[in-house]
């Protein structure tokens, strides 16, 4: 199985968080860790969902911590027979006077190497720029990513509050990525805007993170099908962030029937209390899909993976 859209800070086990918190000198006394790390069933929006990243980010304070974090996520994925995993995270969120972006990336790469050996699985890292950060910061991220591209870093991404920070504000980031020949995916269409997906495609995105709003635009769906632009769909989190209100509105089958190369992913294993198995079972149960559809989704993911 392939999981192409998995956020590091949203997928850490409670055991890992406890270990990282101790290292960071963060007291967890009196906290209901499960509630701190998992989105509520009645989560109102993407903005509310994103608050569940606060504690994990506070705990990631060292190169070794990033190594342990990546290894932890790979352990969880390997337990459900995931064979290829793309883990994404935003290094610039954790940069301090004592911790550089390069140290963060090298720590994550160390964890990736250990995970490959220990769990017999393959994987890569996707480095995320953040929508709320100045474009100059995200350009520096891309330039740093270029130093590790092909050595465990496979692409860059843009994440964060899509509604508040339109993707066009980061045009310089993607211009630089193209100059350096680094492929990129972009979170788009998660907050109801089909135009956001058009913008991401026009900026050069190889894949679209989520893409839910494409269902509003038949021309956009045809374009994505004709140009074989994969969508990284994450059903459980899409329901939680209110990208859709219910499975009745979920456009998975609409996209699949339109010929868009849909992939199914976890997004945030801990925040959404999910796994790739759960995501696929949700779809199987609702759509009564057979094994051939699952095989098609995995073939889509294999083709869409940033493996060069």
Looking at this protein, list some descriptive labels.
about 300 residues; alpha/beta; TIM Barrel; 4-stranded parallel β-sheet; globular
Briefly characterize the structure.
With 308 residues, the chain is of the alpha/beta class. Helices cover 46% and strands 14% of the residues.
Q: What CATH first level would be assigned?
A: Alpha Beta
Low-confidence stretches: none
Count of individual helical segments? 14
- Helix percent band: 40-55%
Specify Rg, calculated over alpha carbons: 18 Å
Output the CATH topology: TIM Barrel
Return the domain count. Answer: 1
Q: Report how far the terminal alpha carbons are from each other.
A: 18 Å
Q: SSE string, helix = H, strand = E?
A: EHHHHHEHEHEHEHEHEHHEHH
Please state how the strands of the largest beta sheet are arranged side by side.
1-2-3-4
Mean pLDDT, to the nearest integer, reads 94
CATH-derived architecture: Alpha-Beta Barrel
Report on the architecture of this protein:
This protein has about 300 residues and is α/β, with parallel strands linked by helices. It has a single domain (about 5-305), classed as Metal-dependent hydrolases (TIM Barrel). Helices cover about 45% and strands about 15% of the residues. The protein has helices at about 15-25, 35, 45-50, 55-60, 65-80, 100-120, 135-150, 170-180, 195-205, 220-225, 235-240, 250-260, 275-285, 290-305; strands at about 1-5, 85-90, 120-130, 155-160, 185-190, 205-210, 230-235, 260-265. The strands form 2 sheets. The protein has a 4-stranded parallel beta sheet with strand order 1-2-3-4, with helices on both faces. The chain is globular.
